[in-house]
Write a structure and sequence with these properties.
- With about 240 residues, this protein is mainly alpha-helical.
- It has a domain at about 145-235.
- It contains 13 helices and no strands.
Length: about 240
């Protein structure tokens, strides 16, 4: 694969964005083949994203991807994240792509590989896959971990009902950024709502979790981290 700057003002990028269905996208794809643009990593990533969005299945995107010689980890990450953005369940497809990464001797996962996968594995029957992915983070990524990876881990354990693990991971972060603060605030606010719906009589635990959101929000303000709509929604929810 060859590199081409994302800032390159090539007309083909606008054509890809204007495609409304898979038929027009195939025409653009043909132009990319005849001009040789398909050999460049960034244009290829753009058509992968569009094909994942427009096609009824992942088969067309996978066909394009399989024709790339020595696809980079960037292309793998692009196809994983774009397939998971679909409304239908694509977790199995994305995990299969991740397995392909692990079988490549020249590739290894990076910070952009895991956030989408953790989000996808945060519900049954994929929870065990998410826990396995956590061990891969420890294996393949060098600490300190990217804040988006940390935030995705916090969200995963929160959604799987393991709030204590989420808090432990948050406390390991030396300087939490906005994504990390929002993740732990949302984790407590979400579990407050879950406990409230599960048992209206469990007022003591609900109050404790709500107070913890307020305390965390106070710490967030003292850290001078900027807040946004997500921060306020978590606060109001609690």
């Amino acid at each position: 694969m060859k590199t081409l700057s994302p800032k390159s003002a090539h007309s083909i990028f606008k054509l890809i964005e204007q495609c409304k269905n898979i038929a027009t996208l195939k025409q653009v794809h043909a132009q990319m083949i005849t001009t040789g643009l398909i050999l460049h990593t960034y244009p290829l990533s753009r058509i992968l994203i569009s094909s994942s969005t427009l096609a009824a299945t992942n088969s067309y995107a996978l066909t394009i991807f399989n024709q790339a010689s020595n696809p980079t980890i960037f292309l793998f990450n692009t196809l994983i994240s774009s397939s998971l953005a679909r409304k239908d369940d694509q977790v199995h497809f994305s995990l299969a792509l991740y397995t392909r990464i692990l079988t490549q001797t020249t590739l290894k996962p990076n910070n952009y590989t895991y956030p989408s996968l953790f989000k996808a594995c945060s519900s049954q029957p994929w929870l065990q896959n998410g826990r396995a992915l956590h061990t891969h983070v420890l294996k393949f990524l060098e600490p300190p971990y990217d804040h988006f990876v940390q935030a995705s881990l916090l969200n995963f354990y929160s959604r799987s009902g393991e709030l204590g693990v989420s808090r432990f991971l948050f406390d390991q972060i030396t300087r939490p950024d906005l994504a990390s603060w929002n993740s732990i605030l949302t984790a407590y606010a979400h579990n407050t709502s879950v406990q409230y719906e599960a048992s209206l009589d469990n007022a003591y635990d609900n109050t404790n979790l709500s107070l913890e959101v307020l305390l965390l929000f106070n710490q967030m303000q003292k850290s001078l981290a900027s807040l946004n709509e997500v921060s306020l929604v978590a606060l109001i929810s609690a």
